[in-house]
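Weekly structure sync - notes
Attendees: PM, LS, DV (DV joined late)
Agenda: review two folding runs queued last week.

Item 1: First target. Sequence and C-alpha coordinates pasted below for the record.
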Amino acid sequence: MAESVQVDHTLSKEKKYEQLLPQLAGLTAGESDLVANLANVAAVLKEAFGFFWVGFYLVKDQELVLGPFQGPVACTRIGFGKGVCGVAWKEARTIVVPDVEAFPGHIACSSLSKSEIVVPILKNGEVVMVLDVDSDKLNQFDAIDAWWLERLSELISAFS
Protein backbone atom coordinates (compact mmCIF):
# COMPACT_ATOMS: atom_id res chain seq x y z
CA MET A 1 0.00 0.00 0.00
CA ALA A 2 1.34 3.44 -0.88
CA GLU A 3 1.73 5.83 2.04
CA SER A 4 1.57 9.58 1.83
CA VAL A 5 2.15 12.58 4.01
CA GLN A 6 0.56 15.94 3.30
CA VAL A 7 2.72 19.04 3.74
CA ASP A 8 1.41 22.55 3.38
CA HIS A 9 4.51 24.45 2.29
CA THR A 10 2.83 27.80 2.98
CA LEU A 11 2.81 27.11 6.74
CA SER A 12 5.37 28.43 9.21
CA LYS A 13 8.07 26.04 10.33
CA GLU A 14 6.35 25.40 13.65
CA LYS A 15 2.99 24.72 11.99
CA LYS A 16 4.67 22.30 9.55
CA TYR A 17 6.11 20.32 12.44
CA GLU A 18 2.72 20.43 14.16
CA GLN A 19 1.11 19.09 10.99
CA LEU A 20 3.77 16.42 10.37
CA LEU A 21 4.22 14.82 13.78
CA PRO A 22 0.82 13.10 13.92
CA GLN A 23 1.23 12.00 10.30
CA LEU A 24 4.63 10.49 11.11
CA ALA A 25 3.09 8.71 14.09
CA GLY A 26 0.46 7.26 11.78
CA LEU A 27 2.96 6.35 9.08
CA THR A 28 5.18 4.41 11.49
CA ALA A 29 2.42 2.91 13.67
CA GLY A 30 1.70 -0.04 11.39
CA GLU A 31 5.34 -0.89 10.62
CA SER A 32 7.56 -2.89 12.96
CA ASP A 33 10.80 -2.61 10.95
CA LEU A 34 13.14 0.04 12.36
CA VAL A 35 15.01 0.67 9.10
CA ALA A 36 11.78 1.16 7.16
CA ASN A 37 10.48 3.63 9.73
CA LEU A 38 13.73 5.59 9.95
CA ALA A 39 13.94 5.76 6.15
CA ASN A 40 10.43 7.20 5.93
CA VAL A 41 11.04 9.71 8.73
CA ALA A 42 14.21 10.94 6.98
CA ALA A 43 12.38 11.23 3.66
CA VAL A 44 9.46 13.15 5.17
CA LEU A 45 11.71 15.64 6.99
CA LYS A 46 13.83 16.27 3.90
CA GLU A 47 10.78 16.71 1.69
CA ALA A 48 8.83 18.88 4.13
CA PHE A 49 11.63 21.30 4.99
CA GLY A 50 14.09 21.03 2.10
CA PHE A 51 16.97 20.22 4.44
CA PHE A 52 20.33 19.42 2.81
CA TRP A 53 20.76 16.11 4.67
CA VAL A 54 18.61 14.16 7.12
CA GLY A 55 19.57 10.85 8.63
CA PHE A 56 20.25 8.60 11.55
CA TYR A 57 23.38 7.23 13.14
CA LEU A 58 22.85 4.11 15.26
CA VAL A 59 24.99 3.16 18.24
CA LYS A 60 26.82 -0.09 17.41
CA ASP A 61 29.92 -1.39 19.16
CA GLN A 62 30.74 2.00 20.74
CA GLU A 63 30.49 3.88 17.44
CA LEU A 64 27.76 5.71 15.61
CA VAL A 65 27.12 3.85 12.37
CA LEU A 66 25.31 5.41 9.43
CA GLY A 67 21.68 4.36 9.16
CA PRO A 68 18.87 5.42 6.84
CA PHE A 69 19.27 8.92 5.39
CA GLN A 70 18.28 11.29 2.60
CA GLY A 71 20.92 13.41 0.90
CA PRO A 72 24.48 13.10 -0.39
CA VAL A 73 26.89 10.38 0.67
CA ALA A 74 27.74 10.65 4.36
CA CYS A 75 30.36 9.65 6.89
CA THR A 76 29.93 5.97 7.75
CA ARG A 77 31.24 5.85 11.34
CA ILE A 78 31.60 8.49 14.05
CA GLY A 79 33.42 7.98 17.35
CA PHE A 80 32.03 8.67 20.80
CA GLY A 81 32.41 12.39 21.54
CA LYS A 82 33.61 13.17 17.99
CA GLY A 83 31.94 15.85 15.88
CA VAL A 84 28.46 17.17 16.55
CA CYS A 85 26.86 13.71 16.44
CA GLY A 86 29.40 12.16 18.78
CA VAL A 87 29.07 15.02 21.28
CA ALA A 88 25.25 14.80 21.22
CA TRP A 89 25.63 11.05 21.91
CA LYS A 90 28.17 11.58 24.70
CA GLU A 91 26.21 14.36 26.40
CA ALA A 92 22.75 12.87 25.61
CA ARG A 93 21.46 16.29 24.60
CA THR A 94 20.31 18.15 21.52
CA ILE A 95 22.96 20.32 19.92
CA VAL A 96 22.13 23.20 17.58
CA VAL A 97 25.07 24.49 15.55
CA PRO A 98 24.44 27.78 13.68
CA ASP A 99 27.80 27.58 11.85
CA VAL A 100 29.53 24.20 11.62
CA GLU A 101 32.86 25.88 10.89
CA ALA A 102 32.76 27.33 14.43
CA PHE A 103 32.11 23.96 16.12
CA PRO A 104 35.35 22.52 17.55
CA GLY A 105 36.05 19.13 16.01
CA HIS A 106 33.25 19.32 13.44
CA ILE A 107 33.41 16.39 11.02
CA ALA A 108 32.81 17.68 7.51
CA CYS A 109 31.06 14.89 5.61
CA SER A 110 30.17 17.56 3.03
CA SER A 111 31.71 20.98 2.54
CA LEU A 112 28.22 22.20 1.59
CA SER A 113 26.89 21.71 5.12
CA LYS A 114 26.72 25.06 6.94
CA SER A 115 24.52 24.46 10.02
CA GLU A 116 23.34 21.39 11.88
CA ILE A 117 21.09 20.02 14.60
CA VAL A 118 21.60 16.64 16.26
CA VAL A 119 19.00 15.08 18.54
CA PRO A 120 19.78 11.99 20.61
CA ILE A 121 17.20 9.22 20.70
CA LEU A 122 17.09 7.36 23.99
CA LYS A 123 15.75 3.95 24.92
CA ASN A 124 15.67 3.01 28.61
CA GLY A 125 17.81 6.05 29.43
CA GLU A 126 20.58 5.18 26.93
CA VAL A 127 21.30 6.89 23.62
CA VAL A 128 20.62 4.29 20.93
CA MET A 129 20.90 6.59 17.91
CA VAL A 130 20.97 10.22 16.87
CA LEU A 131 18.93 12.16 14.34
CA ASP A 132 21.25 14.40 12.34
CA VAL A 133 19.91 17.22 10.17
CA ASP A 134 22.19 19.44 8.08
CA SER A 135 21.46 22.59 6.12
CA ASP A 136 23.41 24.28 3.36
CA LYS A 137 22.42 27.60 4.98
CA LEU A 138 23.87 29.23 8.09
CA ASN A 139 21.64 29.57 11.17
CA GLN A 140 18.97 27.22 9.79
CA PHE A 141 18.03 25.64 13.14
CA ASP A 142 16.61 27.10 16.33
CA ALA A 143 14.62 26.28 19.46
CA ILE A 144 11.54 25.47 17.36
CA ASP A 145 13.44 22.75 15.47
CA ALA A 146 14.94 21.45 18.71
CA TRP A 147 11.57 21.22 20.47
CA TRP A 148 9.76 19.46 17.62
CA LEU A 149 12.64 17.13 16.72
CA GLU A 150 12.87 16.15 20.38
CA ARG A 151 9.14 15.25 20.25
CA LEU A 152 9.91 13.25 17.12
CA SER A 153 12.77 11.50 18.92
CA GLU A 154 10.26 10.35 21.57
CA LEU A 155 8.12 8.84 18.81
CA ILE A 156 11.15 7.13 17.28
CA SER A 157 12.21 5.80 20.68
CA ALA A 158 8.84 4.08 21.00
CA PHE A 159 9.40 2.03 17.83
CA SER A 160 13.16 1.53 18.10
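Item 2: Second target, run right after the first with the same settings.
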Amino acid sequence: MGISRKNLYILIMLFCMVGYTWLVMHIDSRWVNFVGPICVFKKTTGLPCPSCGSTRSMIALIHGDFLKGLSWNPMGLLLLGGLIVFPFWLLHDVTFKKDSFHVFYTSLEKTVSKKQVAWPLLLILMLNWCWNIYKGL
Protein backbone atom coordinates (compact mmCIF):
# COMPACT_ATOMS: atom_id res chain seq x y z
CA MET A 1 0.00 0.00 0.00
CA GLY A 2 1.21 3.51 -0.83
CA ILE A 3 1.34 6.65 1.24
CA SER A 4 -1.74 7.52 3.30
CA ARG A 5 -3.94 10.44 2.26
CA LYS A 6 -3.11 12.41 5.39
CA ASN A 7 0.65 11.93 5.04
CA LEU A 8 0.58 12.74 1.33
CA TYR A 9 -1.34 15.97 1.89
CA ILE A 10 1.01 17.03 4.70
CA LEU A 11 4.06 16.22 2.58
CA ILE A 12 2.77 18.11 -0.47
CA MET A 13 1.87 21.17 1.62
CA LEU A 14 5.34 21.13 3.20
CA PHE A 15 6.95 20.90 -0.24
CA CYS A 16 4.81 23.81 -1.43
CA MET A 17 5.72 25.96 1.59
CA VAL A 18 9.42 25.22 1.05
CA GLY A 19 8.98 25.99 -2.65
CA TYR A 20 7.31 29.34 -1.96
CA THR A 21 10.00 30.25 0.56
CA TRP A 22 12.75 29.26 -1.87
CA LEU A 23 11.22 31.36 -4.65
CA VAL A 24 10.74 34.42 -2.47
CA MET A 25 14.32 34.18 -1.26
CA HIS A 26 15.61 33.89 -4.84
CA ILE A 27 13.53 36.70 -6.28
CA ASP A 28 15.74 38.97 -4.17
CA SER A 29 19.10 38.50 -5.91
CA ARG A 30 21.00 39.91 -2.91
CA TRP A 31 20.27 36.69 -1.02
CA VAL A 32 21.50 34.53 -3.91
CA ASN A 33 24.68 36.57 -4.29
CA PHE A 34 25.33 36.29 -0.54
CA VAL A 35 24.81 32.52 -0.32
CA GLY A 36 25.95 31.45 -3.79
CA PRO A 37 24.99 28.21 -5.55
CA ILE A 38 23.38 25.64 -3.28
CA CYS A 39 23.17 22.58 -5.56
CA VAL A 40 25.07 19.87 -3.68
CA PHE A 41 25.42 17.80 -6.85
CA LYS A 42 27.05 20.70 -8.73
CA LYS A 43 29.30 21.56 -5.79
CA THR A 44 30.46 17.94 -5.60
CA THR A 45 30.81 17.04 -9.28
CA GLY A 46 31.15 20.40 -11.01
CA LEU A 47 28.25 19.41 -13.28
CA PRO A 48 24.72 20.80 -13.11
CA CYS A 49 22.03 18.40 -11.92
CA PRO A 50 18.93 17.73 -14.05
CA SER A 51 16.96 20.30 -12.07
CA CYS A 52 19.58 23.07 -12.16
CA GLY A 53 17.98 26.24 -13.48
CA SER A 54 14.51 25.37 -12.20
CA THR A 55 14.40 28.28 -9.78
CA ARG A 56 15.52 30.74 -12.46
CA SER A 57 12.97 29.16 -14.78
CA MET A 58 10.13 29.71 -12.31
CA ILE A 59 11.19 33.30 -11.67
CA ALA A 60 11.25 34.00 -15.43
CA LEU A 61 7.80 32.42 -15.77
CA ILE A 62 6.45 34.51 -12.87
CA HIS A 63 7.72 37.61 -14.69
CA GLY A 64 5.90 36.48 -17.83
CA ASP A 65 8.97 35.45 -19.83
CA PHE A 66 7.77 32.03 -21.00
CA LEU A 67 10.57 31.33 -23.50
CA LYS A 68 13.32 32.30 -21.07
CA GLY A 69 11.66 30.15 -18.40
CA LEU A 70 11.62 27.13 -20.68
CA SER A 71 15.20 27.72 -21.80
CA TRP A 72 16.47 27.80 -18.20
CA ASN A 73 14.82 24.47 -17.44
CA PRO A 74 11.50 23.10 -18.74
CA MET A 75 10.96 21.41 -15.36
CA GLY A 76 10.37 24.88 -13.93
CA LEU A 77 7.00 25.00 -15.70
CA LEU A 78 5.90 21.76 -14.03
CA LEU A 79 7.18 22.87 -10.63
CA LEU A 80 5.50 26.27 -10.82
CA GLY A 81 2.30 24.63 -12.00
CA GLY A 82 2.41 22.34 -8.98
CA LEU A 83 3.05 25.24 -6.62
CA ILE A 84 0.01 27.02 -8.03
CA VAL A 85 -2.44 24.12 -8.36
CA PHE A 86 -1.63 21.70 -5.53
CA PRO A 87 -2.45 23.90 -2.51
CA PHE A 88 -5.88 24.78 -3.95
CA TRP A 89 -6.52 21.14 -4.85
CA LEU A 90 -5.59 19.99 -1.34
CA LEU A 91 -7.66 22.77 0.24
CA HIS A 92 -10.64 21.67 -1.87
CA ASP A 93 -10.21 18.03 -0.81
CA VAL A 94 -9.85 18.89 2.88
CA THR A 95 -12.76 21.35 2.84
CA PHE A 96 -15.16 19.02 1.08
CA LYS A 97 -13.79 15.78 2.59
CA LYS A 98 -12.70 14.45 -0.80
CA ASP A 99 -9.65 12.44 -1.77
CA SER A 100 -9.28 13.38 -5.45
CA PHE A 101 -5.62 14.39 -5.10
CA HIS A 102 -4.78 11.12 -3.35
CA VAL A 103 -6.57 9.18 -6.11
CA PHE A 104 -4.68 11.20 -8.74
CA TYR A 105 -1.34 10.58 -7.00
CA THR A 106 -1.98 6.85 -6.62
CA SER A 107 -2.98 6.57 -10.28
CA LEU A 108 0.06 8.58 -11.38
CA GLU A 109 2.35 6.42 -9.24
CA LYS A 110 0.98 3.24 -10.85
CA THR A 111 1.28 4.69 -14.35
CA VAL A 112 4.84 5.95 -13.90
CA SER A 113 5.98 2.62 -12.45
CA LYS A 114 5.21 0.88 -15.77
CA LYS A 115 8.35 0.33 -17.86
CA GLN A 116 6.76 1.71 -21.03
CA VAL A 117 6.18 5.01 -19.20
CA ALA A 118 9.18 5.07 -16.85
CA TRP A 119 11.82 4.65 -19.56
CA PRO A 120 10.63 7.51 -21.79
CA LEU A 121 10.37 9.76 -18.71
CA LEU A 122 13.90 8.78 -17.71
CA LEU A 123 15.08 9.52 -21.25
CA ILE A 124 13.45 12.97 -21.12
CA LEU A 125 15.13 13.62 -17.76
CA MET A 126 18.50 12.57 -19.18
CA LEU A 127 18.03 14.79 -22.25
CA ASN A 128 17.18 17.69 -19.95
CA TRP A 129 20.34 16.96 -17.98
CA CYS A 130 22.41 16.97 -21.19
CA TRP A 131 20.76 20.29 -22.09
CA ASN A 132 21.80 21.72 -18.69
CA ILE A 133 25.39 20.53 -19.18
CA TYR A 134 25.47 21.89 -22.74
CA LYS A 135 24.23 25.32 -21.54
CA GLY A 136 26.92 25.34 -18.85
CA LEU A 137 24.56 25.98 -15.96
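Discussion on item 2: The chain has one domain: 5-135.
Action: LS to circulate a short write-up before next sync.
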